[in-house]
Design goal:
By secondary structure, the chain is α/β, with parallel strands linked by helices. It contains 13 helices and 15 strands. Helix 1 (13-21) runs parallel beside helix 9 (246-258). It starts with a strand and ends in a 6-residue tail after the last strand.
């Protein structure tokens, strides 16, 4: 699972990245501080299966019944209008963004940076303009891919050397868009009933937008929300927005690492230890007020919402012993895997290992003890043993 952080320069993407991954990266108050993508590991939260099953286990990934599941986070280069034409670091940005399953668009909710990422007086720039231009850049990028060889493609289709969905899918194979995805977009737009030779810019643009929405779903992280007077809107430019203060999350993470506080990412409060310095206590008092106002820093919430809300993922636990819920080494619920909603027992087997999937015989639902087939649809929180001829499932 790969989540991309995108947005214009100087909105706090790298701070968000550092706070989410506990990885130090270069930050600065000027455009293009990030030149090459920073890649790290963050975690999303889900209720651990240990609670409903009534089992106990010791794993750092389970904290008080909350399971921490790793995801790959990519902080890509700063974006400017015209990136799809190669302006700014556009080519680097788009190349990195193509790897992501979902996108968190970090914007400056305080309106303290202009469209080019230059500092301006807070409140003088409209954050909705940033939300719109990034979507427009992605739509233009997808549209350019289609337009580049449209004449050649439409001739292939007209001469029946290729089907419409198959021909378009080949142009987007590098973005992980398959023929079924294109077929769904054609059906939803009604373009499946219109000959490709009759398409113009409007039709190409509509299909590009529909495919982008399905393949690169986006969530807005309204960063610098602590500097905003009043509440951050639930939607910005038609996109769901999560108010964030990545600077606060970064400070809390560092204070927790030093032992000054007890804090878990995503919580709306923390406890100060006796070892906190006077300077730390003063800073933490300010952050406490921000948490009370925002209900948390928003960084963890944005990650969780991107995976479970935008992508609609579920969590499944593969094990080798269906009675003890453990692997061959006795570790209880050792792995938690993210899968698309609607995934099957066979999909879980593939996620564990390709060879196990090749030798798939059946699965065992550890909650019920029932044997399930390859096409059995998984539910969120399922614990499954995979029985395979290739290897022991888990």
């Amino acid at each position: 699972m790969q989540i991309g952080l995108l947005g214009k320069a100087n909105v706090g993407k790298s701070t968000f990245f550092s706070a989410a991954t506990e990885t130090a990266v270069q930050t600065g108050n000027f455009p293009f501080t990030t030149i090459e993508p920073n890649v790290g590991v963050a975690h999303v939260r889900a209720p651990c299966a240990c609670g409903p099953l009534g089992v106990s286990h010791e794993t750092p990934e389970c904290r008080g019944g909350t399971r921490l599941i790793p995801v790959r986070l990519i902080d890509v280069a700063g974006l400017v209008p015209g990136a799809h034409e190669g302006k700014g670091l556009g080519n680097k940005f788009l190349d990195a963004a193509r790897q992501a399953d979902a996108l968190i668009h970090v914007i400056d909710a305080a309106g303290s940076t202009d469209l080019q990422g230059q500092p301006v007086k807070p409140g003088t720039h409209d954050p909705a303009e940033d939300a719109r231009f990034v979507v427009e850049e992605f739509d233009a990028w997808f549209g350019d891919i289609l337009r580049r060889e449209w004449q050649k493609l439409s001739k292939e289709i007209e001469q029946k050397r290729s089907g419409l969905a198959a021909a378009i899918a080949r142009r987007f194979s590098g973005l992980g868009i398959g023929e079924a995805d294109v077929s769904a977009a054609l059906q939803s737009t009604g373009l499946h009933a219109k000959g490709a030779a009759d398409w113009g810019d409007a039709e190409i643009g509509e299909l590009a937008r529909t495919m982008r929405e399905a393949s690169k779903p986006m969530l807005v992280a309204a960063n610098k929300a602590d500097l905003v007077e009043g509440d951050v809107p639930a939607e910005i430019a038609g996109q769901r927005a999560i108010p964030c203060s990545s600077e606060s999350e970064l400070l809390l993470g560092r204070a927790a690492a030093s032992g000054a506080i007890s804090y878990s990412p995503g919580e709306a409060s923390f406890e100060v230890s006796g070892g906190a310095t006077p300077q730390q206590r003063a800073a933490l008092e300010t952050v406490s007020g921000i948490l009370g106002r925002l209900g948390g820093t928003g960084v963890q919430r944005a990650l969780d919402e991107a995976v479970f809300g935008v992508l609609g993922m579920i969590v499944a636990y593969p094990v080798e012993d269906e009675t003890k819920m453990c692997d061959k080494d006795g570790r209880v619920l050792p792995r938690a895997l993210l899968l698309r909603r609607g995934s099957t027992a066979m999909d879980l087997a593939r996620a564990v290992h390709a060879e196990i999937a090749e030798g798939f015989l059946h699965g065992i639902d550890c909650k019920t003890g029932r044997r399930v087939g390859a096409d059995h649809e998984l539910s969120d929180g399922d614990v499954i043993k995979i029985v395979s001829t290739k290897a022991r499932g888990g």
